[in-house]
Amino acid sequence: MLEYEVTARRIDSHGSEARTKEARIVLDTDMAGRDDAFNPAEMLLASLAACMLKGAERVAPMLKFDLRDMAITLHGVRQDSPPKMVRIDYEILVDTDETDQRLDLLHRNLRKFGTISNTLAEATELVGTIRRKS
After folding, report:
1. Burial code of 27-61, b = ≥16 C-beta within 10 A, e = fewer?
2. Is 82 helix (H, G, I), strand (E, B) or coil?
3. How far apart are the C-alpha atoms of 129 and 19, rounded to whole Å?
4. Model's pTM, two decimal places?
5. Which residues contact 18 (CB under 8 A, 6 or more apart)?
6. CB atoms near residue 68 (< 10 Å)
7. Are 6 and 24 in contact, with CB atoms under 8 Å apart?
8. Contact between residue 14 and residue 27 where contact means Cβ atoms under 8 Å apart
9. Alpha carbon 70 to chain centroid distance?
10. Which of these, 6, 2, 16, 105, lies nearest to 55 by C-alpha position?
11. Under 8 Å between Cβ of 65 and 102
């Protein structure tokens, strides 16, 4: 089993920070919000995107998939009571000359072997598409 450790602390009423290894992320914990940091819901979406991007780096060589570039756009829908993310939609845009079948194979692998995607799929509706960059 792999294990992870992150620490987080309040800086002031305007924000907080999270740390792991040598990395630091500023967190938007200001009740009024702030534009220069990710709020918790945005961090969740970014975590899913990072999972898929890292997954692509892992599976592309195994599949001998020609991956030149990849971008992901995500949209989360949060309900108020009780507060929770009820749906996450995503679109993966891939720069490749691979066939549609191979593109679908990449997508299936990203969903099947992603720690964050598997965790979120158990907790909320996770719907996404993959397409070739035009």
Report:
1. bbbeeeeeeebbeeeeebbebbbebbeebbeebbe
2. coil
3. 32
4. 0.94
5. 6, 7, 8, 24, 25, 27
6. 9
7. no
8. no
9. 13
10. 105
11. yes
Name the 3-class secondary structure at 55: helix
Cα(121)–Cα(29) distance, rounded to whole angstroms? 26
Q: Tell me the pairing of strands 84-95 and 69-79.
A: antiparallel
3-state class (DSSP) for residue 25: strand
State the helix-helix crossing angle for 100-112 and 40-63, rounded to 10 degrees.
120
Q: What is the DSSP string of 92-124?
A: EEEE----HHHHHHHHHHHHHS-HHHHHHHHHS
Residue 134 is predicted with a pLDDT of: 82
pLDDT on residue 38: 96
Tell the burial category of 72 from Cβ atoms under 10 Å away from its Cβ (0-12, 13-18, 19+): buried
Write out pLDDT tens, residues 49-84: 999 999 999 999 999 999 999 999 999 999 999 999
CA–CA distances in Å: residue 118 to residues 28, 52, 53: 26, 11, 14
